[in-house]
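QA checklist item 7 of 12: single-chain prediction sanity check.
[x] sequence parsed
[x] length recorded as 132
[x] structure emitted
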Amino acid sequence: MTMPDSPAYCWVVARVDPADDSIERFIVRHYRYDPQRRGRRHVVVAAFDNEREFRACMEGVQAEIGRRRDAGEPVDPGEHASGIVHEPGYLRRAANGHLVSRAIRHGAAGQWIGELELPSNMSVVWAERPSA
C-alpha cells in the first residue's frame, strides 16, 4: 500500500489492511499518476472498518486535491478521490472467478467448478448431452 506524506491522508484514525478478506472494509483510493508504474491508476490510500472514517478520509483527499489546484500546482484534470467497499470473501471469490475463466479457456473445466464460490457477476452452467 502506498502511503503519501500529505497530512490530508487521515493518519489519526485506525485503519485496517485492505487485503484482509475476513472483514468488510471501506477502501479510499486516489486516482493519480503513479511514478512506480509510470501511469495513472487508483492508488490505495487507506482502508477502514467503518463508513464514517472512510468518508472523512475521502473528503480529506478531495480537499487536498482542491488545495493543490487552488494553489496553482499542476493537477491532472482527472485526478480524484474515490472509494470502494469490499465484503468479506471478495478477494477469494475474485480469485475463484479468475481460476474458472482460465480453466474454461484452457479446456480444463470439470465438475469441480460447481464447488467454488464465485463473484456475483459470474455463474457457471453445466450442460451435457443425453446418453444414447
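[x] summary fact logged: The first helix runs from residue 51 to 70.
[ ] second reviewer sign-off
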